[in-house]
Amino acid sequence: MPYKIKEMRLKQNMSQEDVCKAADISRQTLSDLESGRDVNTTTQTLVKIASVLGCKVSDIFCA
Questions:
Q1: Residues paired with 61 in a beta bridge
Q2: In the Cβ-directed half-sphere of 18, how many Cα atoms lie within 13 Å?
Q3: What pTM value is reported for the model?
Q4: Which ranges constitute the DSSP H helices of 4-62?
Q5: 60 burial level (CB within 10 Å; 0-12, 13-18, 19+)
Q6: What was the pLDDT predicted at 40?
Q7: In whole angstroms, what separates CA 38 from the centre of its chain?
Q8: pLDDT tens column, 46-60
């Protein structure tokens, strides 16, 4: 299932680096999730990203 992480990140005027540092994840992980190269990740990673973006995990899934 694809994610809309990049869209939400840009709405917050955050760089990938900003999100990665705040969520304590690698830039490669975030890049892969945003580009759709990797859609398999842990719930913990999604929770961290959602927390940094100020949203619920369900908000970052594309419908």
A1: 3
A2: 10
A3: 0.90
A4: 5-11, 16-23, 27-35, 43-53
A5: buried
A6: 85
A7: 12
A8: 999 999 999 999 999
- State the DSSP code for 15: -
- Tokens representing 62 are 């594309």
Amino acid at 35: S
Name residue 23's amino acid.
Answer: A
Q: Other C-beta atoms within 10 Å of 29: how many?
A: 16
Residue 20 carries which side chain, given as an amino acid letter?
C
**Under a CB-based contact definition with an 8 Å cutoff, are residues 3 and 45 in contact?**
no
- Tokens found for residue 25: 């994840």
The vertex-39 CA angle with 51 and 33, nearest 5°, equals: 55
Q: Could you give the CA distance from residue 10 to residue 8 in angstroms, rounded to a whole number? A: 5
8-18 confidence digits (pLDDT tens): 999 999 999 99
Length of the chain in terms of residues written? 63
